[in-house]
Write a structure and sequence with these properties.
Helix content: 10-25%
Protein name: peptide-methionine (R)-S-oxide reductase
CATH class of one domain: Mainly Beta
Shape: globular
Strand order of the largest sheet: 3-4-8-7-6-5
Catalytic activity: L-methionyl-[protein] + [thioredoxin]-disulfide + H2O = L-methionyl-(R)-S-oxide-[protein] + [thioredoxin]-dithiol
Keywords: Oxidoreductase
Oligomer: single chain
Order of helices and strands: HHEEEEEEEEE
Largest sheet: 6 strands, antiparallel
Number of strands: 9
Number of helices: 2
Strand content: 25-35%
CATH superfamily of one domain: Peptide methionine sulfoxide reductase
EC number: 1.8.4.12
Radius of gyration: 14 Å
InterPro entries: Met_Sox_Rdtase_MsrB, Met_Sox_Rdtase_MsrB_dom, Mss4-like_sf
Structural class: mainly beta
């Protein structure tokens, strides 16, 4: 797929830290319970750390106790791209930033969380940047 923001690999490597690059551009996963936004309750908008696209809001963030920030819906349906992921012997749905194609995490359905969508967007903190709401 062609993305609005399309940079050569060398440029992504120069702009992102090694840890950010491993997750955002190589579909890695940060260790559970280590990300800066796992337990954050601040109000605001979560954007893609690679390109700044607005992805999720604090209104849809919930505590799933899975070790990563969880959201039940993206800010805008077009903000994320969902792709079937059959790596690691599993069938999952990968979540990518629709603007730059960066890996964000995975989305799961039917787990029984009391959310309006019954979905859990399990997102790596390192893929996000929180812009706190101005009160």
């Amino acid at each position: 797929m062609a993305y609005e923001i399309d940079k050569p690999d060398e440029q992504w490597r120069a702009e992102l830290s090694p840890e950010e690059y491993a997750v955002l551009r190589q579909a890695g996963t940060e260790r559970p319970f280590t990300g800066e936004y796992t337990d954050t309750k601040a109000k605001g908008v979560y954007s893609c750390r690679a390109c700044g696209a607005e992805l999720f809001t604090s209104e849809t963030k919930f505590e799933s106790h899975c070790g990563w920030p969880s959201f039940y819906d993206p800010k805008d349906t077009d903000a994320v791209e969902l792709i079937q992921d059959t790596s690691h012997g599993m069938v999952r749905t990968e979540v990518r930033c629709a603007r730059c194609g960066s890996h964000l995490g995975h989305v799961f359905e039917g787990e029984g969380y009391p959310t309006p969508t019954d979905q859990r967007y399990c997102i790596n903190s390192i893929s996000l940047r929180l812009e706190p709401a101005q009160d």
